[in-house]
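Support request, please re-run this one:
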Amino acid sequence: MSFYDELIRHDWQATSDSIVAKTESDVRGALAKERLGLDDFKALISPAAAPFLEEMAQRSMQLTQKRFGKTIQLYIPLYLSNYCTNGCVYCGFNCKTAIGRKKLNMEEIRQEIEAIKKLGYSHILLVSGEAPQVADADYFLKVLREIGDDFSQLAIEVQPLQQHEYEKLAAAGLNFVCIYQETYNREKYGEYHPFGSKADFRYRLETPDRLGRARIHKIGLACLLGLEDWRTDSFFTAMHLHYLEKTYWRTRYSISLPRLQPHAGGYEANHPINDRQMVQLICAYRLFAPEMEISISTREGRRFRDNVVRLGATSFSAGSSTEPGGYANPGGELEQFTIDDDRSPAEVAEMIRAQGYEPVWKDWDSIMTAGAEEKE
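Re-run finished. Output below.
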């Protein structure tokens, strides 16, 4: 049993129709509840909820402050490699895209770490294109061992791995894995992922199950907003989260809201989502899952990020580079996509403080996980 068995019981178009059919009465009913179900989430992301955005924003702000305080956690991505064997039509790392390719060696990684540590970071996200013959689990293990003493939280966003590989990485200090399904539309998935290992919809979909069984401390989910109808994809993301929370209850969860951005391949979003709809989605996620972390990256512009500090977000990236080696030796020709918010980490931290919130550089240490495991 996995989430795949749950998903195939739902028809994409019927789900889309049921979201659009939600009424003002359904939205009022959802807002009147303390604990929301998936049908309530449908109501809050429906067109009928648009006039209720201010009320949703107020509820979202209150719930976020109650659970997380007035804080925003800061993290930074480190791109290890942009080699990729996939043909994802929307991605700048697509193997057919004519960009320079690079995989960092340990000396280059150490240079990147020295540059990143000067910015004040204690949480790092290691990112790689999906090319196992170039960057495999053994390479990630070596990197984790190299930088483990430099950071309190180690996260990865790389190709899906096997359960035993996640277990080995967890033993080396890995505590957070981001794995994005991109779209839950099984009929259209192949159009966006025509070849490569990422073309296997089911294997990717079942990766969070393997992570849960490997006892990874935190799992990050997302769909790529702009590929398919954002409401339907977000509903299935919420359904996936609901399944995981029931099945792997020891695990923490995070949702990201990546929107398609310009890149070297020039792919345009099929189903764009505007800023007001993004705010509606953030608030709906918060009301549905008050304990869940919500991450907003530098894909988004400064004005949007400034406005959502109070509305439900809990973590921001800042000062990001999407090219391997981009912190110590910036060049720009190897990047995955264009960064929209190009402010420095210090500038983003100051913006957060100006809104009465505290930028948090460290809220986790591996010793916390070790303590929990010893009690079991």
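The first strand starts at residue 71 and ends at 81. The radius of gyration is 20 Å.
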